[in-house]
């Protein structure tokens, strides 16, 4: 399997997964919130989980937008930045006294997967680069355009 196919599959699966999680928190936070790993339900109506739902949905849409528009390098950088989110979630769960298995197994593993996908995307070479380089060697005036 080519690296490009692998990174496309990882990014698409990640986007689908986080969109599902985000929409689940927006539609039925009561049913999915216990899986987050914190020890109790937030005060009042659980607005914090609605915020998480919106955050996760937006993250998935950003990944899809970049992937569908072929912005693979930008996608790599976006995923590198987005890896902070599950890392933060892991630290929140651990700081709250939540279950370490959920903290490390869900949020920590997600952070590692997102960071690894980002690293793989950033290692990709653009397909058109060799042809453009060859053209600029023949005609240096083409370097700017």
Task: Summarize the SSE layout with pairings.
Blueprint: H1 3-27, H2 29-32, H3 47-68, H4 72-82, H5 84-95, H6 100-123, H7 129-138
Helix pairs in contact: 1-3, 1-6, 3-4, 4-6, 5-6
Account of the protein in words:
InterPro entries: DUF4267 (IPR025363). The chain crosses the membrane at residues 7-28, 48-68, 75-95, 101-122. Keywords: Membrane, Transmembrane, Transmembrane helix. The chain is mostly helical. The chain has one domain. Helix content is 74%, strand content 0%. The protein contains seven helices and no strands. The protein has helices at 3-27, 29-32, 47-68, 72-82, 84-95, 100-123, 129-138. Helix 1 crosses helix 6 (100-123), helix 3 (47-68) runs antiparallel to helix 4 and helix 5 packs antiparallel against helix 6 (100-123). The relative contact order is 0.14.
Helix % is over 70%
Gap from first CA to last CA: 33 Å
Poorly predicted regions: none
Could you give a short account of the major beta sheet? none
Alpha carbon gyration radius: 19 Å
Strand content: under 5%
Structural class: mainly alpha
Order of helices and strands: HHHHHHH
Q: Counting H and I runs of at least 4 residues, what is the number of helices?
A: 7
Based on CA inertia axes, which overall geometry fits? Answer: elongated
Kindly give the count of domains. Answer: 1
Mean of all residue-level pLDDT scores = 87
Number of beta-strand segments: 0
Keywords: Membrane, Transmembrane, Transmembrane helix
Pfam families: DUF4267
Protein name: Small membrane hydrophobic protein
Transmembrane segments: 7-28, 48-68, 75-95, 101-122
